[in-house]
Amino acid sequence: MSKRDDLIVKYAADIKDKFGETPNMDLLTKVAIGLGPAIYNLDASKVSGSDDKELQTVKNNFLIKKLGLADSSDLMDAINSVIDKYGRSDKNKHRAVIYYMLAKHFGKESIYN
């Protein structure tokens, strides 16, 4: 198994354990591939739920630029909802899992097709 495959298995376990959902492995794989080399970088592969600048980056770079959503308060509400479900105190919030959950939340899975 490749390192990417190992990471995707870890992300799938997080989705199952933290969110109580069976992940769509095809979508999860595409989200991980879309993140490119960031998934291998310890800092870039994680999202800090307590860093407002980091959450703004998720909003601007992923929700607005990648998913094409219009800027609104709903975006930060969705990010905070995912962070809360993941566990705000959990220091290992994987970016791929957050992006996967947000894509599903907004019904934007087709972006990865």
From TrEMBL:
It holds the Pfam family DUF2853. This is DUF2853 domain-containing protein.
